[in-house]
Each structure stands twice: as C-alpha cells, then as structure tokens.
Amino acid sequence: MKFFVDTADVGEIRELAETGLLDGVTTNPTLIAKSGRDVFEVLEEICGIVDGPVSGEVTAMDAEGMIREGEKLSKIAKNLTVKLPLTFEGIKACSHLSKQGIMTNVTLCFSPAQAILAAKAGATFISPFVGRLDDIGQDGMQLIRDICTIYSQYDAIKTEVLVASVRSPMHIVEAGKVGAHVATIPAKVIKQLFKHPLTDSGLEAFLKDWESTGQSIA
Ligand code: G3P
What we know:
Layout: E1 2-6, H1 10-17, E2 24-26, H2 29-35, H3 39-49, E3 54-57, H4 63-74, E4 80-85, H5 88-99, E5 104-109, H6 112-120, E6 125-128, H7 130-135, H8 140-151, E7 160-163, H9 169-177, E8 182-185, H10 187-194, H11 197-213
Bound molecules: SN-glycerol-3-phosphate (G3P).
C-alpha cells in the first residue's frame, strides 16, 4: 500500500520523507488555508520534496473553470495531481484533463456509484472519505470494500483507490486487508502506526540488560 501524507505542512512532509515511507502528498483547500501560504508556492515546494504524486485541488465550480485551474496547477511540476470534486462538473473536467495525460484525483467520494463515475472518467485516483462517513454513523470501510470489489471486476479500470479522511491506524489495517492501493494519512496517524507498548517495554529491557554488560558497539 502506498502512503501519502494528508498535509500542506512542509515541515511534516520533510520529516516523514526521511523515513523513506512516503509515496506522495495530498492537500485540499482547508489544508492550504491552514498552512497560511500561497497555494502555488507551497505546492511547488512540496513537489520538490517528494517524487510521487502531490494533489492540489481546484476551487472553481464549473468544468471550464476547473480545467483552466487544473492546467495551471499541472504546470507547477510533473508530479502535480489535479484534485477535482465528485460533481457533474468535476467529472466532466476529470475526463478532459485525464485525456490530456494530466494526473487526476477525484475527491469527496461517498458512494460506490460515484467511484464508478470517476473510473469511467479516467481518474488516476478516487478518494473515498472513510472518517467523514464514520462520523455520521455509517461504515466508511464498507465503502472501500465495495469500491475495491467493483474496480477489481474490470481489467480496464486503472483508477487507484486512495483511502482518505483517515482517522486511526485501524483504517490503514482495514484498507490493507481489502487491497486499497493508497492511503492518505495525517502525519499524526502515520506516527501512531509505529507505536506498540510491547515495543517500548521490550526495548527498555534490552537497553537495561545491555548496560549491565558494560559493552559498546559504537
Ligand atoms: O484531503 C481529503 C481528506 O483526507 C479529508 O480528511 O480529516 O478532513 O475528513 P478529513
């Protein structure tokens, strides 16, 4: 499973890139606003940090406007992926940009039917939001299972399932069980993935015993 980090904070991206685990980055208008930076400037910096896809989202509501913004964003770097909302206009823009060979990420997907539309429009990624469905008492992971099942019926579908709105390590484990291609994860949750109390207590005991030997490997 590929790991993208869901942030526009370049400090977080640089720190995680050092682990060698980072395959890409996703942003959205909320995350750009949170960064307090110019959208073009921050996306260009992020595209320089990671080699993989970096999603930058359009904000126009009509397909023409989305295409104009998408073409402008795509000039930032080769790895810039144009993020489009799952609306009638967004799907129209996705078909157009995909035909131009521009990478696309269709976002705000909440149903398997919507995911079928994105695949038909040639989206590079579909972003189903698991956490926001869980928040309203629905089963977010069931949406991932359904989309993975549907996409796997067709060799022609190349769209990758990008699990978004991730809230906890369990979302990652469950996404892995059904073979989701990518998860975009907040930096905090990526760090939680490393954690296990038995790792901490085991390491503490090893170090204590090692100290008693008086030896050094350094
Ligand atoms: O960028 C899309 C996404 O992952 C949103 O997450 O936490 O705002 O629901 P969240």
